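Final report, Chapter 2: Outcomes

The project's central promise was a pipeline that accepts a single protein chain and returns its three-dimensional structure in a standardized token representation, suitable for archiving and comparison. That pipeline is now operational. To close this chapter, we reproduce one record exactly as it appears in the project archive, with the input sequence first and the structure output second.
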Amino acid sequence: MLLSEYLREKGVADDLAGVFLDLAEAGKEIRDILKTDLGEEAGTANVYGDDQMKVDVEANEVFVRKMRENGSVGVVASEELDGEHILGEGKFGVAADPIDGSSLLDVNLAVGSIFGVYETGTFVGCSGRDQLGAMCLVYGPRVTLVLTFGAGVSQFILMGNGDFVLVRDDFVMKQVKMFAPGNAKASVLRDDYFDLLSYWFREGYKLRYSGGMVPDIYQILIKGGGIFAYPADDDAPNGKLRLLVEAAPMAFLIEQAGGAASDGEYDILDRKISNIEQRTIVYIGSREEVDRCKQYLG
């Protein structure tokens, strides 16, 4: 089943379906950019102070252009933009990290894109539970796409003819002994994180961490369980990951597969957006493992 056919079968409204189809098209263009990217730095920094790669800038330009051309999108936010950008009178807002993990490109590891779609004229005051849908793409040996509209998660693969074809819609998270420990250096100063890492190693968990949020959480989804943890440290006492453009869409996907996502105190999807640059601690994956993170680190 093609992505367009899937959206019709699920009864997704034409204007919202159009947004997701254009995001999928943006993914194809980003895939083409990645094919010839040389890992060059752009010589600029984004609003968060991160050095930008040329591919970050180019992918963001693709995202903004596709959303402007769509006509139903009125506002966008991106890791590469300073605040919200008003595009027009459209009723949808789209938050994005067009390229997650661009620092992995020079060693040819998988990277991804993250998108969350709202019906709003501003993201401030929204929570992740206000999302109408969320999507991520993974650019690896093959290009895959997973999305949710709040009723389960479906996976598509980009075929050679340019079509995204449905391959799976039966995701169920369970207990799997696999962990992706972000910010592991924090365990030097945080005894609680050191103890949690020691537990995972002692209990025979598989360490699977690439340094890219999308591929690391995607593997948990595909393998049916595990945990991605990114706790706070002295340099980032509120966490490092962006609530709006990174954590909320990925949390929506994982929750819809039966998993959980928490900042150690609250469900990530319950947290209100107070500003576009807002950061968060992230524990995301199997419910049992998220509870374990809260027990050790919360």
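Archive annotation: The helical segments are 3-9, 14-35, 54-70, 191-202, 213-223, 243-256, 287-297.
This record, like all others produced under the grant, will remain available to the consortium after the project formally closes.
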